[in-house]
Design a protein that fits this description.
Blueprint lengths: L3 H14 L5 E6 L12 H8 L8 E3 L2 E5 L12 E6 L4 E6 L2 H7 L5 E7 L4 E6 L5 E9 L14 E3 L16 H10 L4 H6 L9 H11 L12 H20 L41 E5 L2 E5 L10
Antiparallel strand pairs: 1-6, 2-3, 3-4, 4-8, 5-7, 6-7, 8-9, 10-11
Helix pairs in contact: 1-7, 4-7, 6-7
The protein binds a DNA duplex (16 and 16 nucleotides) through helix 6.
Length: 307
DNA sequence: CATAGAACCTGTATGC
DNA sequence: TGCATACAGGTTCTAT
């Protein structure tokens, strides 16, 4: 469910409400939710107990909370609590004893970090596509020439193959546009490929392509540089607008770190708007199957590619 | 290596 | 009411 604006909203909330606090204990209620932590739930709990969360970072839809060094001597590997929200994940901060008590009864509570100040950080996830793990941070070159930087960014090993996202100050949009045009696929598939550019999901792909007036099935080989950049600008623009409003939300499935829903869904032009008039030309929006999901577009503003 | 499709899990909405 | 099917915002693994 959450795409970049939602995950960034959560990251911002964690930065302001959780960073600096220390984990006292961990409850793993659903081992499947920590399946990516190969050493198992007990190891995860052991590596978190007593550690202080020192920052909140993000790339694309992955977010992580770097941990302090317990021993302080020597140079232990940097590590972090890594989270992916999947389709339905939430990270909820419980501040008071009452909040902790009530949150503990939540049907979809999967993992709980009890904090030493009496609060808790809850990982709630209905569909369980999301996951938590504790992983090493490694200096990592960009998977693709999507951005240039003097120093290598420190990212979790499982994030090494994820390209920079469009809100990353170091992203190189011209290079991303060239990478897209090098692919031999359809534009929507390329925009959704997290190894090309990260953070984009089904909603913002459809909305960005509508803004750019490009049909989702357009072959990438047919795009000139200016058109590819227009798509990136469209996607970045809609994500920036969504972020300003705290992310998109359809229902109680998504809430930000404090439990407040976003409301960007009220300004979606085509996503979920099948049959409704295109805000630009009035033509009914079309929905068609795409990779076990749907694509939404205006058949007039976004003409289908020839053939 | 690049690309397309299946698989992973839970829940709601819809139709018969 | 009961049951089957479609669909949901993502990523990884496997096959080609």
């Amino acid at each position: 469910m959450p795409e970049l604006p939602e995950v960034e909203t959560v990251r911002d909330g964690l930065e302001r409400h959780v960073v600096g606090r220390t984990v006292r204990a961990v409850e793993v209620r659903r081992p499947y939710s920590v399946r990516r932590h190969l050493a198992g739930p007990d190891d995860l709990a052991g590596r978190l107990a007593g550690r202080t969360l020192t920052a909140a970072a993000r790339r694309g839809k992955f977010l992580w909370l770097p941990l302090d060094h317990p021993g302080a001597a020597g140079v232990p590997p940097d590590d972090a609590l890594l989270a992916h929200l999947g389709m339905s994940g939430q990270l909820l901060v419980r501040g008071t004893a009452d909040d902790v008590e009530q949150g503990g009864a939540h049907t979809h509570l999967r993992v709980r970090l009890l904090l030493d100040d009496g609060g808790a950080l809850d990982f709630v996830d209905q569909r369980t596509f999301g996951h938590l793990s504790v992983v090493d941070l490694l200096p990592t070159p960009d998977a693709r020439p999507g951005g240039a930087g003097s120093a290598l960014p420190l990212v979790p090993a499982p994030v090494a193959h994820i390209a920079r996202d469009l809100l990353d100050p170091a992203v190189d949009r011209e290079a991303v546009a060239r990478a897209i045009r090098r692919r031999r696929t359809q534009i929507k598939r390329a925009v959704l490929d997290q190894g090309v550019v990260s953070g984009v999901g089904n909603i913002y792909a459809d909305e960005g392509l509508w803004r750019a007036r490009v049909h989702p099935a357009t072959p990438t080989a047919d795009l000139d540089q200016a058109t590819a950049l227009r798509v990136l600008d469209g996607v970045a623009g809609v994500m920036t607008d969504a972020l300003a409003q705290g992310g998109t939300s359809f229902d109680a499935l998504y809430v930000n770190v404090n439990g407040a829903s976003g409301y960007f869904d009220r300004s979606l032009a085509v996503y979920g708007q099948a049959g409704e008039p295109c805000p630009r030309c009035g033509t009914p929006v079309v929905r068609e199957p795409f990779m076990n999901r749907s694509s939404h577009f205006c058949p007039v503003c976004q003409p289908a590619p020839a053939g």
